[in-house]
Amino acid sequence: MDPSINLMLYQEKKKSAPFALVMSVFLPGFAWMYCGKIRFGICYLLGTIVGYLLTLPGILLHGFAIYYSWKMVKVYNEKLIQEIAKLSE
């Protein structure tokens, strides 16, 4: 496969880590949903809401969602690069 096609495919499908980070501030679990893990993201969101009813667990879960959102998108993009590389073989 032509390298320019691979680059276009990557640019089309990659996710934005800064966007996921900002959205995770407002919606815990967003990064998982953004990367295609909808069910896990919704469960995380619901767990955070329940945790906020207990105060400290919600704050901790929300903080973890914000921290992990950047890493989640980076992992998604790395896997995308590997999948595109396999297509070009």
Describe the structure.
The chain has 89 residues and is mostly helical. It has one domain (24-87). The protein is 83% helix and 0% strand. The chain is built from five helices and no strands. The protein has helices spanning 3-13, 17-26, 30-34, 38-53, 56-87. Helix 1 (3-13) runs antiparallel to helix 5 (56-87), helix 2 (17-26) runs antiparallel to helix 5 (56-87) and helix 4 (38-53) packs antiparallel against helix 5. It is elongated. The relative contact order is 0.18.
Feature tags:
89 residues, mainly alpha, 83% helix
List the helices and strands and how they pair.
Layout: H1 3-13, H2 17-26, H3 30-34, H4 38-53, H5 56-87
Helix pairs in contact: 1-5, 2-5, 4-5
